[in-house]
Specification:
The chain has 393 residues and is an alpha/beta fold. The chain has three domains: 205 residues, Isopropylmalate Dehydrogenase, CATH 3.40.718; 123 residues, 3-Layer(aba) Sandwich (Rossmann fold); 34 residues, no CATH class. It is built from 13 helices and 14 strands. The longest helix has 18 residues. It binds 1,4-dihydronicotinamide adenine dinucleotide and magnesium ion. Magnesium ion binds next to helix 10.
Length: 393
């Protein structure tokens, strides 16, 4: 019986790139049945829930999801687009991908940032005799459920919250701020979640031969939360004698990664910091068209490109967007399922297409997106997929 995969195209270009990844999976001989799951803006507008219960049930049953992207909009816009029959009934918009991560406790987010040789978007560095093009091979482990994105926040905090906070001496500075003029977002981290993400990072480093794991936080300022990450990392690192533990501050790391990105192996961080670091590293390896990710829990895993729904390109037909980020996310799914030989053949095909450089999406040509990119030499989304499929050995 073929394996069942829940296919969650979502919105915008999610609907474009996900079928492309499935074409590549089929071409590599991966046998699966794809079961469609509803998710995204359309379901918020029609049902008041961007993540319907039936989709949660599908994932609970089949365990593996392949996700495209969703559109999120601010509170007011969300309220305005809700079906009139549902208005004022207490529906509140939440991001369905954040919801999925939290519902299934998909607490380990893995974002590999690995350059392909010959990609015109690769990071280059001025050197004494011209330019260096160091190949980046960093893998970001982002704690995916807690920290600043846990969603524990208020504008105009209730009195009990305010009172509780005022037991902290530093709240004196806010004594004269009326509650209605106060916004609070908390950064709560649990020791067990810190340990899980750090251990996952070290295990990955060990399995794939990385020589260092960097904890990227800010323990000199965020003494409690970042402090806990760092102290847990120091403890766990003792179990991995061949792997060095480095620690950097998030701000300094942003500077260093533009100086010597090639020295970093595995990087581990809290939710928001991991989000930032992985986007920054993604910029060095070709940007959102190349950035893939996995969200892994104890039972369930969802694989998705880092990019969003890129609404400004969703109507373009033929499509211009780069399907590689989605295809690489599908490769991560194959790895998770133990189909490493198939994922390697697909990655080799992508590497060959990029290095040959005959077929390039608009981003690889550094063009401004639009319907005119084809006259300027860009290929369509589908042509890129075709070329990759042609090169699968
Ligand atoms: P975005 O990632 O959708 O697009 C930003 C820009 O990146 C695009 O305009 C395009 O220039 C480029 N880009 C993105 N994907 C590309 C691809 N495959 N190939 C080539 N270029 C690509 O981010 P944006 O515009 O900030 O957000 C659009 C919507 O997506 C929003 O509603 C946002 O909330 C949502 N979003 C959803 C995410 C998810 O589903 N996980 C993640 C990020 C944003
Ligand atoms: Mg992001």
């Amino acid at each position: 019986m073929p394996r069942k995969i829940v296919s969650l195209p979502g919105d915008g270009i999610g609907k474009t790139v996900l079928p492309e990844a499935v074409r590549v999976l089929n071409a590599a001989g991966f046998e699966a049945e794809y079961i469609h799951g509803d998710i995204g803006w359309e379901f918020w507008c029609k049902e008041g829930n961007a993540l319907p219960q039936r989709t949660i049930d599908l994932l609970a049953e089949h365990k593996i999801g392949l996700f495209g992207a969703i559109t999120s909009k601010p509170k007011d816009a969300a309220a305005k687009e809700l079906d009139p029959s549902l208005r004022d009934k207490g529906y509140v918009y939440f991001s369905p991908i954040v919801g999925l991560r939290q519902h299934f406790n998909l607490d380990i987010c893995i974002r590999p940032c690995q350059s392909f040789k010959g990609n015109p978007l690769n990071f280059i560095r001025r050197s004494n005799n011209g330019f260096d093009e160091p190949l980046v091979n960093a893998v970001v482990f982002r704690q995916n459920t807690e920290g600043l994105y846990a969603g524990v926040e208020w504008t105009n905090p209730p009195k009990v919250v305010r009172n509780a906070l005022e037991t902290h001496p530093k709240m004196k500075a806010f004594k004269h701020v009326p509650s209605e003029d106060m916004a609070i977002s908390t950064r709560i981290m649990s020791r067990s979640a810190c340990r899980r993400i750090i251990r996952a990072a070290f295990e990955y480093a060990k399995k794939f031969g990385y020589k260092n794991v960097t904890v990227c936080e800010k323990p000199n300022v965020l003494r409690e939360t970042s402090g806990m990450m760092l102290s847990e990392a120091k403890t766990i690192a003792k179990e991995y004698p061949g792997i060095e533990l480095w620690d950097t501050n998030i701000d300094a790391q942003m500077m260093w990664l533009t100086k010597n990105p090639e020295i970093y192996g595995v990087i581990v961080a809290e939710n928001m910091f991991g989000d930032i670091i992985s986007d920054a590293f993604a910029g060095l390896i070709g940007g959102l068209g190349f950035a893939c990710s996995a969200n892994i829990g104890e039972e369930i895993a969802v694989f998705e490109p880092t990019h969003g729904s890129a609404p400004k390109y969703q109507e373009l037909n033929p499509s211009i967007v780069n399907p590689i980020a989605m295809i690489l996310s599908a490769c991560m799914m194959l790895d998770h399922l133990g189909e490493n030989e198939k994922s390697q053949r697909i990655r080799n095909a992508i590497a060959k297409v990029v290095e040959e450089g005959k077929v390039k999406t608009y981003d690889m040509l550094k063009l401004k997106g639009g319907a005119d990119v084809f006259e300027k030499g860009a290929c369509t989304t589908q042509q890129m997929t075709d070329e990759i499929i042609k090169n699968i050995a």
